[in-house]
Amino acid sequence: MKIEVLPSEISGTVSAPASKSIAQRYVAAALLAAGETTIRHYPNSEDPFHARKLAESLGAIVQLSKNTLTIKGGFPANEIHEIRTPQKNLFAGESGFASRLFVPIAALHNSEKILNGTGTLLNRPFFEFEPYLTPFGVSVSTNEGKLPLTFSGQLTAGKAELSAANSSQFLSGMLMALPRCTGDSEIVVTELNSKPYIDLTLAVMKMFGVAVKEENATYFIKGSQKYKPQDVSVDGDWSGAVPLLIAGALTATEGLLVKNLNTRLPQADQAILDVFDLAKVKYTQNENSVKVFASTIHAFDFDATHCPDLFPCLAVLASFGNGVSTLKGAKRLIVKESNRASAIVEEFAKSGIRVVVRGDDMMIYPGHARPAVWNVHKDHRMVMAGALFGIAGAKTVLQNPEVISKSYPDFFKDIQSIGGKMK
Q1: Cα-flanking dihedrals φ and ψ of residue 323, to 5°?
Q2: C-alpha to C-alpha distance for 40 and 234, rounded to whole angstroms
Q3: Rounded distance, CA 314 to CA 327, Å?
Q4: Inter-residue long-range contacts of 132-141, CB under 8 Å, 24+ positions, other chains counted
Q5: Cα gap 43→280, rounded to integer Å
Q6: Are strands 139-143 and 113-116 parallel, antiparallel or unpaired?
Q7: Percentage of the chain with pLDDT > 90?
Q8: Deepest in the core among 9, 31, 314, 369, taking most CB within 10 A?
Q9: pLDDT tens-digit readout, 359-382
């Protein structure tokens, strides 16, 4: 499969998709809550699909009607009669976050379990589960640091110093699971990257009645807390909105309004507005939307360490700037769906843009975009970046763009609805 994206002028109104990041946290909290939770505006992308399937594998009763998900939970104790015995084999698809979020939760049940996945997830590292889980009573083995992951024993309260330099996803799982243990726990975190994602985890836990005290990168977790069922709605996804907003910043002379965007829960990629301020992009914001206008893009320097998913699309924005821009945090890109650092260098070069990675810095040198055929490296974020080059620069052919379904199945449909040309 391939899609050709052609130069276009974007305008009109579009809604951001529902956040897969929030949705998966809601599912985890609902699994742990004894009773029925309702999750409205549940996204139809692949990662949330596998999150709800993991909840089912761990015994929850899950029903989806249109875009409303109901979950009868109570894991790990049989606190309601309907919850079923957890399965031994767990499958996370290609979802890095769901796999890392649900393992500590699954370990609350004292039985051996095996986590596996498919596609790009099989090449991503899971060796960090051993230092995370071992101090808390769980034995772990991997396939040379990768899936399948086998773990056994029951998660118990404890104290440990843990690194979150490569990913905060392991930490989110621990923070959600440990309040269900008997006894108090303490986690001292070193090199915490992607902190906004931890803030989001804590905010969701608070919505479900569970509290964690944070002080100087130390997390104090009271034991024997109970998650309480909720009726919640999934907020719009700032990550999915980023390519829409950047398309507007590059081509929307009459403006593009992106709805379903609020700041009720912290999302790392809300930082796009900080970048817009640096790049002198014209936009307005209200309680539930952002309107952006075609602007002269000024060179900018931005630290994306805590929001690494922004890199591909920010690099496109920088490619149309009036000077060299620098993005910090490039080391975070090695263990994503692809090695995003090398993927950006390789594919941007095809489009006539020079990108240099030196240590933790990525420098983008603006140039005249030219037609190109992109290999998207099985990475949904690279699909978004390639589409932006086609819209704002020159015809760009995206090979195997269907991987966009991981996070945003309606991406091309939404792009077309606001004037994006493709065939």
Answers
A1: -175, 180
A2: 6
A3: 8
A4: 132/104, 132/160, 132/162, 132/170, 132/171, 132/174, 133/103, 133/104, 133/107, 135/159, 135/160, 136/107, 136/160, 136/174, 136/178, 136/181, 136/185, 138/107
A5: 32
A6: unpaired
A7: 91
A8: 31
A9: 999 999 999 999 999 999 999 999
